[in-house]
């Protein structure tokens, strides 16, 4: 979409220093889980833009972004302060590393990468796919969504570090398409672990959020 003022439906805490912001989908908005939008706001006369990845499995009526909030940051704290009815300028969707109906998906998520992980996981499960989610963080975010995925048959692993060890412990899943979401350091470690475990890393869909704060 060209730049559009999108209405906030609600903001809720989904774990430590993390919020999920739900927006009303503008007419004609189409996006897949794993794609991202660019959000804009003005701070002391300076316009800032940041990217945020969809954390809802679809964009029917509403869509959601999951935002890790560092109090020293700019857009993160601003988004966390939004209220229902506020309008937020954004463009998108962008990105090629999204779910495209694969039968077997292995999603590796670090930190706020859990947003696209729960989105891809839920959509793929609804399509009847075999789903694995490995999520690395200090403390878990979106625990209810992860539990719902596990209850619906996904293989869900939470680790506080050592994503490589978690990937190594996967057996018989290297034929799946790997999806990797998180800050750059996490993505590098995750891709290396996938390579060691025999995944086709050239076919992996890797979306780096840039350098970690
Ligand atoms: C493709 C892509 C997808 C992304 N998807 C997501 C997503 O789904 N969810 C998500 O949470 N993020 C995502 N990001 C990251 C996001 O775009 C932002 O980089 C992130 O939210 C930080 O933005 P900010 O404006 O809050 O912080 P910034 O102002 O950019 O600051 C970054 C960090 O610098 C430090 N800092 C800044 N100002 C100060 C200060 N005055 N004093 C001390 N330290 C300071 C803080 O540690 C802060 O966290 C994505 C990025 C990319 C490239």
TrEMBL record:
GO terms, molecular function: oxidoreductase activity
Record-annotated FAD-binding FR-type domain positions: 1-100
Source organism superkingdom: Archaea
Name of the protein in its database record: Oxidoreductase
């Amino acid at each position: 979409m060209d730049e559009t003022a999108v209405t906030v439906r609600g903001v809720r805490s989904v774990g430590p220093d993390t919020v999920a912001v739900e927006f009303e989908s503008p007419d004609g908005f189409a996006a897949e889980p794993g794609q991202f939008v660019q959000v804009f706001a003005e701070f002391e006369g300076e316009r800032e833009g940041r990217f945020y990845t969809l954390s809802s499995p679809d964009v029917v009526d509403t869509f959601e972004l999951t935002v890790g909030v560092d109090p020293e940051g700019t857009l993160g704290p601003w988004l966390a302060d939004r209220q229902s009815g506020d309008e937020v300028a954004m463009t998108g969707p962008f990105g090629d590393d999204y779910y495209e109906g694969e039968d077997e998906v292995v999603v590796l998520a670090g930190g706020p990468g859990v947003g696209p992980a729960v989105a891809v996981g839920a959509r793929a499960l609804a399509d009847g796919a075999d789903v694995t989610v490995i999520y690395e963080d200090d403390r878990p975010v979106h625990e209810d969504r992860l539990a719902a995925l596990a209850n619906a048959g996904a293989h869900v692993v939470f680790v506080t570090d050592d994503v490589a060890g978690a990937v190594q412990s996967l057996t018989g899943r290297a034929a799946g398409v790997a999806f990797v979401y998180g800050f750059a350091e996490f993505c590098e470690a995750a891709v290396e672990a996938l390579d060691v475990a025999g995944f086709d890393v050239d076919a992996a869909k890797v979306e780096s959020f840039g350098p970690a704060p």
